[in-house]
Amino acid sequence: MKGIVRSKRIVCEDGFTVSVQASALHYCEPRNDEGPYSAVELGFPSEEEPLIVEFADEEDNLTETVYGWVPSHVVKKLMAKHGGIMEGQLPHLV
Questions:
Q1: Could you tell me where the beta strands, DSSP code E, fall in the chain?
Q2: Residue 3 confidence (pLDDT) above 60
């Protein structure tokens, strides 16, 4: 294992923020440190987001939980919905 590389928190054009991570220690596919990833782990979004609610670890506190194995196409749709990425970067997605 190469060690954990944490991606900087994503900040979108409309102010929405979310952590997007992928490594051998995150809820992603493949579960390795290289990717490309067909699913990634999201965490602690700045607001409740219907596009990812089904992946929530804790459904009763949607801004204070992790979202495991979120498909890459859903992540791309989420970024587009919020106007695109202003800061941060996504792991390499398929």
A1: 10-12, 17-21, 39-43, 66-71, 85-87
A2: no
